[in-house]
Amino acid sequence: MARIKDVAKQAGVSVASVSRVLAGHSKVSESIRQRVLGAVHDLSYRPDLAARRLRSRQTDTIGLIVSDIRNPFFTEVSRAVEDVSYQHHLRVILCNTDEDVEKENLYLDLMRDENVSGVILSPTLTTLAGFRARDYPFPMVLVDRCDRDTAADAVILDNVDAGYRLTTHLIDNGYRRNIFFYGTTSATGRQRREGYVAAMAAHGLEAHAEPVRSTATAEHGRAAAYERLRRRPLPDALVASSGLILLGLTEALRESKLRFPDAVALAGFDDLPWTRLVEPGITVISQPLYEIGRAAIELLLQRIAKPDQAVRRVVLRGELIERGSTAKRNGSAGVSVAA
């Protein structure tokens, strides 16, 4: 395997010159640059990245730690982070915590060991509760999850507003006994529930929120909804705090042979492809997923460049997409059986 000394010898320059070319320094003549790059190509030389990390306090690597890579939300966010990182010649280490604090701590330790330049984190509730950016040796940007008083760079949706607008839409369309299903493992679900409760209260209605415990997967959402649908009277509408829970609610309605919106209306978060394909289409709050990821990596790059700048928070607004699952109710709706 070729070493940097071999590249220097073939190019007829010093090892220091090779290092300057590989580091992208501008104070290198074009002729030397071309000779070094030619030697690198001919010898198939690859830099010793581990040695470089030992010599430098910064690397060309960032970390992205998400709570559930199976969630389409994080898939799209991760794509945006990777796209922008590639444009800036950065590598991305992607880690998945499954909402497990021990795994989260393990990966944060890994980031320290790898001496990454910065980290984008979707924190667990435990980590978020005591989060202090100064506790970490690298710049940090929180994505999707952040409390009001968390002093950290963050990119989030205006979750309270989104929950309020989605619930108000249901009420305006004649649905008054609405049950909100939310994940208990993240701040996001709690904030969207807060918006739901506020909207119900504003219209003089009683709020009913059902926690989806453990990781808020489609399976857990389906089980929680199916249990509620076995009881009477039926609610007017089911509302989900995430795309995975929404999928679970949809499955529960199908298993219970209840059509939406005739028997029970249905709404939730994330404009996933299947929400448009299910008849009659499901009303959702669409999140600007790619924009969330792009804003997160740009905030991180700014923090890396200016470590002492003021904390910044990017708050984006979701779009309410109305579909047939929440069609305006004419009079009282009875239970109908799905085909």
In terms of per-residue confidence, which ranges show pLDDT below 50 for 5 or more consecutive residues? 332-339
Strand order of the largest sheet: 2-1-3-4-5-11
Domain tally = 3
Shape: elongated
Estimated radius of gyration: 25 Å
CATH topology of the largest domain: Rossmann fold
CATH architecture of the largest domain: 3-Layer(aba) Sandwich
Taken in chain order, the helices and strands follow as HHHHEHEHEHEEHEHEHEHEHEHEE
Structure described in brief:
The protein has 339 residues and is of the alpha/beta class.
Describe this structure in words.
By secondary structure, the chain is of the alpha/beta class. A 6-stranded parallel β-sheet has the order 2-1-3-4-5-11, with helices on both faces. Strands 7-6-8-9-10-12 form a 6-stranded mixed β-sheet, with helices on both faces. It has 13 helices and 12 strands. It has helices at residues 4-11, 15-22, 30-43, 49-55, 72-87, 101-114, 125-129, 159-172, 187-202, 218-229, 243-255, 273-277, 289-305, and strands at 61-66, 91-96, 118-121, 140-143, 153-157, 178-183, 208-212, 237-240, 265-269, 283-286, 313-316, 319-321. The model is unreliable at 332-339 (pLDDT under 50). α1 (4-11) crosses α2 (15-22). The protein folds into 3 domains: 4-47, 434 Repressor (Amino-terminal Domain); 61-157 and 289-317, Response regulator (Rossmann fold, 3-Layer(aba) Sandwich), CATH 3.40.50.2300; 159-287 and 321-326, Response regulator (Rossmann fold, 3-Layer(aba) Sandwich). α9 (187-202) links the parallel β6 (178-183) and β7.
